[in-house]
Design brief:
CATH architecture of the largest domain: 2-Layer Sandwich
Shape: globular
Bound molecules: adenosine-5'-triphosphate, magnesium ion
Low-confidence stretches: 421-426
CATH class of the largest domain: Alpha Beta
Strand content: 15-25%
Strand order of the largest sheet: 1-5-6-11-10-9-7-8
């Protein structure tokens, strides 16, 4: 009998490798534009890193980990996710002494013993970002921004749904937990076997149950948002304000919980229509207590992971990563606020628009526009703002013209349409 790859472990053949390269290159560009640096931690860790970091009573630790004893009898695990290992490395090398906020990314394989299906493998790949050392809601928003930017590079933004929730903190979560346990005990007979067990070991996780009957019962369960303390509520409010400024559409889903124990406050999932049962492409949230669980110092953090295999399902065959239609180069605070408005407006119209997250010189923003492969660049400065005008630059011909901001959407759409015609005619 011929030998075959292990079930759930897939060979990546050249055609698919090409697509993956494009995804990784695109992600690296976005990570770099937000100031993240790469970290690569080992695929194998001591089991304890995940048992403590993810939580004993989670699906991952209870049933999905590849754990074995090595020749010395040490218990080791193939990493099921990236965050716990990255935090272990940050603590071990005291990286937190190097900068007040560490912005790290990693790209690589993860391993979970799950039932293989479309979009679900035993070796799968993630694009991960972590902001370690900041409790600012803007770090949460930046994480979501990264997930959204990367995914919308390869998928139509109209097909994406961003769901956001707050899981509260150690102050307010126990109050919710108490009422939830009471509710689950009262409805015990209508819950599946797993949820009966969860209601004792990890009650919040019942919301993650894929069983339709459980979901019917849970519609009436107490949800965190009615218990949330003022600090958590204000944190959430500031995350949502930042998302609005970024022009990222979202919905609040009070039933959203994550598969890992360490999440606090912000949690989010980016879902895509057309992916069927495995609809979540990217997910993440805040994990302020995780460092202490791994014997580290107090280090708040927030992170996200994009599932590469699910992104591949969203990419149409042979699809090129969508290059940017427009890059907005804004100079000065007022112009940057104006840029956010246009960013949101034009993205909602389905255009791919980027801008510089850092306040940089015009020259360096133009370089960034070039790197993003932007077709056009809109230059907004203080002077132009006063006239409600901006300069539109054709990045191919290098021609520039002054446009009235009110007419911008029309002009852009006209130009892009014309471009496509020329391309078709070629
Ligand atoms: P799910 O509910 O689909 O099992 P999860 O909550 O276990 O997801 P996370 O641990 O948050 O997933 O992982 C983040 C992302 O990694 C997911 O949104 C998904 O895109 C991807 N992912 C997770 N598990 C797998 C898998 N077994 N195969 C392929 N991709 C996966
Ligand atoms: Mg899972």
């Amino acid at each position: 009998m011929t030998l075959k790859a292990v079930r759930g472990f897939k060979d990546i053949l050249p055609d698919e490798a090409k697509k993956r390269q494009r995804i990784e290159e695109g992600a690296r560009r976005v990570f770099a534009s937000c100031g993240l640096e790469e970290i690569r931690t080992p695929i194998l860790e001591k089991t304890e890193v995940f048992a403590r970091g993810i939580g004993e009573h989670t699906d991952i630790v209870e049933k999905e980990m590849y754990t074995f004893e090595d020749r010395n009898g040490e218990l080791l695990t193939l990493r099921p996710e990236a965050t716990a290992g990255i935090l272990r490395a940050v603590i071990e090398h005291k990286l937190y002494n190097k900068a007040p906020v560490l912005k790290l990314f990693t790209i690589g394989p993860m391993f979970r013993h799950e039932r293989p299906q479309k979009g679900r493998l035993r070796q799968f790949h993630q694009l991960n970002a972590e902001f370690i050392g900041s409790s600012s809601p803007l770090a949460d928003a930046d994480c979501i921004f990264l997930a959204y930017e990367i995914v919308s590079m390869f998928a139509d933004s109209e097909d994406l749904i961003l769901e956001v929730n707050s899981l509260g903190c150690p102050e307010c979560r126990p109050l919710h937990r108490k009422d939830l346990v009471l509710f689950l005990n009262n409805n015990r007979d209508d819950l599946c076997k797993d949820c009966k067990r969860r209601s004792k070991t990890n009650p919040l996780r019942v919301f993650d149950c894929k069983n339709e009957e459980c979901q019917q019962v849970l519609k009436f369960a107490p949800v965190m948002k009615h218990y949330i303390c003022p600090e958590c509520a204000s944190h959430m409010g500031r995350v949502l304000d930042a998302l609005e400024a970024y022009g990222i559409p979202f919905v609040q889903n009070p039933y959203l919980v994550r598969g890992l124990d360490y999440y606090k406050r912000t949690t989010f999932e980016l879902k895509a229509r057309g992916l069927g049962a495995q609809s979540t492409v990217a997910a993440g949230g805040r994990y302020d207590g995780l460092s202490q669980l791994l014997d580290g110092p107090e280090l708040p953090g927030v992170g996200m992971a994009v599932g590469v295999e699910r992104l591949l399902l969203l990419m149409k065959d042979g699809a090129e990563p969508k290059r940017s239609d427009l890059f907005i180069a804004a100079l000065g605070d007022e112009a940057r606020t104006e840029a956010l408005y246009w960013l949101g407006y034009l993205r909602r119209k389905g255009l791919k628009v980027e801008y510089s997250l850092e306040d940089k010189s015009l020259k360096s923003q133009m370089k960034q526009a070039d790197k993003a492969g932007a077709r056009y660049c809109l230059i907004v400065g203080e002077k132009e703002m006063d006239e409600e005008e901006a300069i539109l630059r054709d990045m191919k011909t290098r021609e520039q013209e002054t446009v009235d901001l009110d007419d911008l959407p029309e002009i852009l759409v006209e130009k892009l349409k014309r471009d496509r015609k020329i391309l078709e005619g070629d």
